[in-house]
């Protein structure tokens, strides 16, 4: 039986989710590895003593590269704090589950702060940390670069991001 391309892709996705694919194709950056002297120890890696590579661009993209992370950060830059429902209204294409997941990742990375107020019903506000505010020039540069690219292609910006006030 010859597998088609769709079947192969589905098989790879299945094996990746079952973590069986890692045995045959080790990940370059493995999570939950023991780190000793800047080396990782992972039984699934070809070499037992792989050196970890630290790349500033990769780190930045991993921290803000989620589905709605840059948009969440952008919205929080325009206001001092926002409730979950406000963020959800600003980003209507995000499901509540996805928005929650992205907010948790941003919080764990130290980019946003989650303030829980002890009231009924529960009130939660999200705001940028000082570390989160430091990403503003990066996002502004990305916005300007993307706007220029779209203009050069004869397209107009039509997303919910608007230029930040200086």
Q: What is the global morphology?
A: globular
Q: Biggest β-sheet: count, sense, barrel? A: 3 strands, antiparallel
What value does the average pLDDT take? 77
Helix content: 40-55%
Supply the number of helical segments.
8
Strand content: 5-15%
The radius of gyration computed from the alpha-carbon positions, rounded to a whole number of angstroms, is 20 Å
Strand neighbour order, sheet with most strands: 1-2-3
**Would you identify the CATH architecture of the largest domain?**
Orthogonal Bundle
Within the CATH hierarchy, at the fold level, what is the topology of the largest domain? Answer: Arc Repressor Mutant, subunit A
Number of strands: 6
In short:
The chain is an alpha+beta fold and 166 residues long. It is built from eight helices and six strands. It has two domains: 5-51, no CATH class; 59-152, Arc Repressor Mutant, subunit A, CATH 1.10.10.10.
What key attributes describe this structure?
166 residues; alpha+beta; Arc Repressor Mutant, subunit A; 2 domains; three-stranded antiparallel beta sheet; 8 helices
Describe this structure in words.
With 166 residues, the protein is α+β, with helices and mostly antiparallel strands. The chain is built from eight helices and six strands. A hairpin with a 2-residue loop joins β1 (34-36) and β2 (39-41). The termini are far apart.
Question: How are the SSEs ordered, and which strands pair?
Answer:
Blueprint: H1 5-17, H2 21-24, E1 34-36, E2 39-41, E3 50-51, H3 56-64, H4 69-78, E4 82-83, H5 84-90, H6 96-108, E5 112-117, E6 123-128, H7 130-133, H8 136-152
Antiparallel strand pairs: 1-2, 2-3, 4-6, 5-6
